[in-house]
Amino acid sequence: MNQSPRVPFVNLGLQYKAHRDEIIGEIDRISLSGKYVSSDDVSRFECNFAQYCDCEWAVAVGNGGDALYLSLLSLGVSNGDEIIIPVNSFVASAWAVAGCGARIVFVDVREDFNIDPELVLRNINSKTKGVMPVHLTGRPAPMNEIMKIAKDNNLFVIEDSAQAVGAKYYEKKVGSFGIVGCFSLHPLKNLHVLGDGGVITSNDKEIINKIRLWRNHGLKNRDECLLWGRNSRLDSIQAAIANIKLKYLDSWNERFRNIAHYYTEKLSDYVIVPQENAHEYSIFHRFIIQTGHRNDLQGFLQNRGVETKVNYPIPLHLQYAAQPLGYKRGDFPVAERQANEILSLPVYAEMTDAQVEIVIDETKNFFRTKV
Ligand SMILES: *Cc1c(COP(=O)(O)O)cnc(C)c1O
Q: Is 319 exposed, middle or buried (0-12, 13-18, 19+ CB in 10 A)?
């Protein structure tokens, strides 16, 4: 029989268990009401989420990938346009661009896994319409530099904030810098629902209204259609669950940070650990270490009951889907090296102190005995 690991990579059931009565109460209320989509629960979540992100507006959508895709569509991105994205990200950053018919322009990242602004600048041409920085691992991308480059070159900025709900850059929440901020409520994200979900923030009423159309069949009201849109809505039950969880998010993020800072302190003699700059408030959606002994360490930890993952083992330009773009190995040396050396350690609010110690002890054991 397979024993469950001493430290699983995630344990979503624990969070549900802690808020079970509240969640069941909402599921029951909405089930009886019959208002399963486009209800007040959804608009309430949009208000709460906008407020949480220091933005004027938010629109809830079906998932984080659609948040990016519908934002690009609403900004009029189409064939012949170029959008710059970091080459180290989840695949949704790429398909959202390709889905609009635009060309994906990858650029390399820096040591902190986030997009390199100098390379953004170097890749701008007359077809470039926008740049989509990703706040990867929950750490804010260098927004001052990116916003300046965008302004100087008349580009829009879409913040892929899927991994960074609640993160701050110079005290300002991510998702409030660009024309829009895109978030995911996927089960693996710090703020998650019991299924798929996404949300977009903005201070621009016009773009918000456009996205509202795109997410709901292009319908202005029940009968009148202004554009051939999509269907990408957040269910009422998921919105109600997101409303419950938003109340606890800051305390969960603090717990992510405490664990991360403790890992940093205890493991910095053994591996490269993420360093947080004074102007950053990272929410450590992932805690990613770097070591030349990655594969051996991962196998060792697995044997000792510590589950880890690699985010991400294949840089976007080396994905099969990217072949038509004509990139090759060697084009993005930082991301390519990181792909071989990165390892995501377990980090989530429900981890016990004892589990955190196990991760640290076993990592140290590996370097003491195996290397
Ligand atoms: C999770 C994620 C997405 C996509 O979110 P889904 O809700 O799974 O569609 C997009 N970008 C990044 C960086 C992500 O981590």
A: middle
**Rg (the chain; Cα; Å):** 21
Q: Region 143-155: what's the mean pLDDT?
A: 98
Ligand 1 atom nearest to CA at 68: 10
Instruction: Centre a 10 Å sphere on the Cβ of residue 215 and count the other Cβ atoms it contains.
Output: 26
| pTM, full prediction | 0.97
The one-character DSSP state at 98 is H
Q: Which atom, in ligand 1's list, is nearest to the CA of 136?
A: 13
**pLDDT at residue 88, rounded to an integer:** 97
Beta bridge partners of 182: 160, 200
The CA-atom distances, in angstroms, between 83 and each of 14, 105, 125, 132, 320 are 39, 6, 10, 7, 20
Q: Is the pLDDT of residue 96 over 80?
A: yes
How many CB atoms within 10 Å of residue 13? 10
Does the beta carbon of 89 sit less than 6 angstroms from any atom of ligand 1? yes
Substitution candidate for ligand 1 out of 72, 91, 163, 193 with most atoms within 8 A of CB: 163
User: Any residues with CB less than 8 A from the CB of 93 and at least 6 apart, and which?
Assistant: 68, 85, 86, 132, 134, 160, 316
